[in-house]
Amino acid sequence: MAGRLRLTAQALSIALVAGLLGLLVWKIATDEKSPVPQAMKAGKTVPAPGFSFERLDRDGRLSLESLRGKVVVINFWASWCGPCKEEAPALEAAWRRHRNRGVVVVGVDVEDVASDARRFARENGLTYPLVHDGAGKTIERYGLTGLPETFFVRRDGKIVPKQVAGRIDEEELEEGIRLALST
Predict the structure, then answer these.
(1) CA dist., res. 168 & res. 86, Å (int)
(2) Are residue 92 and residue 21 in the same domain, yes or no?
(3) Which of 81, 94, 98, 116 is the most exposed place for a label (fewest CB within 10 A)?
């Protein structure tokens, strides 16, 4: 009797897991996907998904819309991300070098604790605008595959077909900024 009960419980457990897996597959298949990754692969521009978040570097909010007319380097990062720390000096240097040309580097801290992000910014001497997306609302809208990830937005609000998934270096930053400035 105990063996039959155990077998029934195992069968129910397997059925439950299979049902949950099916639900997950259905959710992934029916979710509206971000147009950003497809546009990048096709070498096309697409409007940058908007956002408005609390700032980490000072009081207030910052929206992407408020930066229209400027070239924007959007870098998605988190304080717990090792490659994010490695690329921070290059992003800071690009900000200092290009801000007088109408280029703004914006760091979007995702799925992180705000106090940890502020400490990360202090320890790495970051002076460019930083916002906090603790819930990770921008992850799906930009089609992020991981952290860090960087996008370049033209003055008209469209993303250029240059995206860097993973740690960005100075050469990649300069190329993305050049592309965004040239259009």
Answers:
(1) 9
(2) no
(3) 116
Q: How long is the chain? A: 183
Tokens 């207030």 belong to which residue? Answer: 60
Q: Which residue has the tokens 């077909």?
A: 161
pLDDT per position in the chain (183 positions), as tens?
A: 677 777 776 766 675 555 445 444 444 443 447 889 888 888 899 999 999 999 999 999 999 999 999 999 999 999 999 999 999 999 999 999 999 999 999 999 999 999 999 999 999 999 999 999 999 999 999 999 999 999 999 999 999 999 899 999 999 999 999 999 997
65: amino acid identity, one letter: E
Place of tokens 């089609």: 143
Let me know: does 51 contact 137? Beta carbons within 8 Å: yes
Task: Give me the numbers of helices (H) and strands (E) for the chain, helices first please.
Answer: 6, 8
- 57 and 113 housed in the same domain: yes
Cβ(52)–Cβ(129) below 8 Å: no
